[in-house]
């Protein structure tokens, strides 16, 4: 009788947040994919539509810039990046393969980003946390995933929904409360 040895999983650690005091919008993914972790870059997979979508929102071709120039430009447009999870175990890049998730610490978010009003969730996996951010006083938008694994909508259909992040008719919300998040 042959038995196979258990597969050892390693704990993966996410990327550092891209935040600044003046951001008004924060886009949260679930956890970086394998290519993003290997490159230490948000949305590094060449077929991920994130940089194209954000470029269309801010009317600047961020996708054409080297990665190290994208982040300061994104912040200049008042947009930050982070992920809901700070660590997990996962084989591959699919959210469905995430095991032992550990959420990022969002407790200091209000102090770090006092102008933050809107939190966008890039896909349904991160969108499961929208209610906690709403309760803390943030406007939330659950977005269709920019991942190449989610191509049910065309780029134009996704962009139409992503435009809700920067909608000029977004309600003026009171400043989010310093409360408990996650």
From TrEMBL:
Protein name per its UniProtKB record: DNA-deoxyinosine glycosylase
A Pfam entry, by short name: UDG
Residue ranges of domain Uracil-DNA glycosylase-like in the record: 16-166
EC number: 3.2.2.15
Database matches in InterPro entries: Hypoxan-DNA_Glyclase, Uracil-DNA_glycosylase-like, Uracil-DNA_glycosylase-like_sf
Record keyword Hydrolase present: yes
Enzyme class name: hydrolase
Gene Ontology molecular function: DNA-deoxyinosine glycosylase activity
Keywords: Glycosidase, Hydrolase
Organism: Massilia litorea
Lineage, highest ranks first: Bacteria, Pseudomonadati, Pseudomonadota, Betaproteobacteria, Burkholderiales
């Amino acid at each position: 009788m042959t038995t196979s040895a258990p597969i050892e999983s390693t704990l993966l650690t996410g990327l550092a947040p891209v935040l600044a005091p003046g951001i008004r919008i924060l886009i949260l993914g679930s956890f970086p994919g394998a290519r993003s972790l290997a490159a230490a870059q948000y949305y590094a997979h060449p077929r991920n539509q994130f940089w194209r979508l954000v470029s269309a929102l801010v009317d600047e071709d961020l996708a054409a810039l080297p990665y190290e120039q994208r982040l300061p430009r994104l912040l200049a447009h008042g947009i930050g990046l982070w992920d809901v999870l700070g660590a997990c175990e996962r084989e591959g890049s699919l959210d469905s393969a995430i095991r032992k998730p550990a959420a990022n610490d969002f407790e200091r978010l209000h102090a770090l980003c006092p102008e933050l009003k809107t939190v966008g969730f890039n896909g349904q996996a991160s969108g499961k946390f929208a209610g906690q951010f709403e309760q803390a006083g943030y406007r939330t938008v659950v977005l269709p995933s920019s991942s190449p694994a989610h191509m049910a909508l065309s780029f134009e259909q996704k962009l139409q929904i992503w435009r809700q992040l920067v909608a000029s008719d977004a309600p003026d919300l009171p400043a989010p409360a310093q409360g408990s998040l996650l």
